[in-house]
Amino acid sequence: xxxxxxxxxxxxxxxxxxxxxxxxxxxxxxxxxxxxxxxxxxxxxxxxxxxxxxxxxxxxxxxxxxxxxxxxxxxxxxxxxxxxxxxxxxxxxxxxxxxxxxxxxxxxxxxxxxxxxxxxxxxxxxxxxxxxxxxxxxxxxxxxxxxxxxxxxxxxxxxxxxxxxxxxxxxxxxxxxxxxxxxxxxxxxxxxxxxxx
Length: 197
Prior knowledge:
Blueprint: H1 2-5, E1 10-13, H2 17-27, H3 33-37, H4 40-48, H5 58-66, H6 70-81, E2 86-90, E3 93-97, H7 101-104, H8 110-132, H9 136-139, E4 146-150, E5 153-160, H10 168-181, E6 185-189
Helix pairs in contact: 2-5, 2-6, 2-8, 6-8
């Protein structure tokens, strides 16, 4: 990412961490205790089956996402990033934790989510989330290494070392998201140069 920063790009190098965290922050008007630490794929899976007793359905999450604003995203991200302690009071007692989204995606910052929301726009993010919701555990993997933007242009970059190739999950993401949604997916092959004696 530092290479692209020098060219005026802004963004995050952490596979789908930025995008999926933004979808989570947009999907809830207010993140509850349980939602704060669960992965977005688990939350959408639980919402899809009423037997799990969630007070929301996938349609509710997508509606929240479509209507999300910068304030909601900022508050929810701050809640996810905070190390608490966060305490939940229940009929059987209380529990607390100090986990943070930064444990999984170090370096993720609030401004990244806010800028990605602005550049991508709610409509594109809603279309991405709608596809994601059809198979959350399959579509959590395979996102490109870097999500970045410059001058209103959004780009996803997959970096491959010499001899490396696209994995199955990466091909699935390209087929299910990049092609139908017209996303700018770029494959960057890193090559080595030989120094002659």
